[in-house]
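It is worth pausing here to work through a concrete case rather than discussing structure prediction in the abstract. The textbook approach is simple: state the sequence, then state the predicted structure, then interpret. We follow exactly that order.
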Amino acid sequence: MATPDFIRELRATAGQQLLWLPGVTAVVFDDQGRVLLGRRSDNGRWSLIGGIPDPGEQPAACATREVEEETAVRCVVERLVLVQALPPVTYDNGDVCQFMDVTFRCRVVGGEARVNDDESLEVGWFAVDALPELGEFGQVRIKQALSDAPTWFDPTGPY
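Step two, the predicted structure:
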């Protein structure tokens, strides 16, 4: 994930201390019920598309922007799927972040899936029953996006 300029500016004064940041994840489905995934250039793993909102940017607008920037697919947000505070992560350079993830179910409205920036090695549509190796983060969000359950949140604790 490319580091937004505003975070670089924060790091100039905050150093490597924990930054609490918003994050969005988009679970994008096409008309055939397939889900859009990207294979990340930073770790080589398949994942859902997501990113960090710019200051003042609405989370849903960020989700659709990130999908188009990374995959050339245009989508619309259908509903909020999940809100979750994630555990802190320490990056290779020593920076520490903790994200509040807001996940949206989205529907494709145009574009052809392709690598559209340097954040992905590959992008593609996958049948839900034939996904590539995908971590628990993505699996949980896809399952929740496919259900008719209300928005998921953890009422019991920080994780």
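Step three, interpretation. The longest strand covers residues 96-110. Helices lie at 5-14, 59-71, 136-146.
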